[in-house]
Design a protein that fits this description.
153 residues, mainly alpha
């Protein structure tokens, strides 16, 4: 088991849900804690609480934004829209054929017991893909933000 798969499993056992895990992985890499952000991620978990867009999809977009997004003082990284598009396109291509769509309700077929079977691998794949996209655009999940890496304009 890799460090990242161990961390995903650990967070799952602690009760973190899909969107929380994606963002916590980014916070871990930055050696940061942000309970307020994690609470906010609850709004995306379980398909925004009502089975819509998978929390691993929306949480992955948030992970990318954590590194490449603007903050009022800095602009978004110029590649942010393309990174998000790449991530969403990958998610659609990967999971629509498998589950008939990208909504939480479709992925777990409205059967909560399928979460334990389907979600851990999906979350781990989402972490890997978001990380791959960030790294391809000059970001490293190594404890430094994109601004510290000089990746922003």
């Amino acid at each position: 088991m890799t460090d990242i798969s161990f961390r995903v499993a650990e967070l799952s056992l602690k009760g973190y849900r899909c969107s929380h895990i994606l963002v916590q992985i980014g916070l871990d890499a930055q050696d940061q804690s942000n309970p307020e952000l994690l609470r906010a991620m609850s709004g995306l978990a379980s398909g925004m609480g009502c089975g819509l867009a998978c929390g691993a999809l929306t949480g992955g977009c948030c992970l990318i934004g954590l590194y490449a997004g603007g903050d009022g003082e800095r602009d978004d990284h110029p590649s942010l829209p393309l990174m998000l598009e790449e991530y969403v396109d990958w998610f659609r291509a990967e999971y629509t054929p498998r589950y008939g769509g990208i909504d939480c309700a479709q992925i777990i077929e409205r059967k909560p017991q399928l979460r334990g079977e389907r979600c851990p691998g999906l979350i781990l794949d989402a972490v890997h893909k978001a990380t791959e996209i960030l790294e391809a655009n000059g970001f490293e999940l190594d404890g430094r933000s994109g601004a510290e890496q000089g990746a922003r304009p």
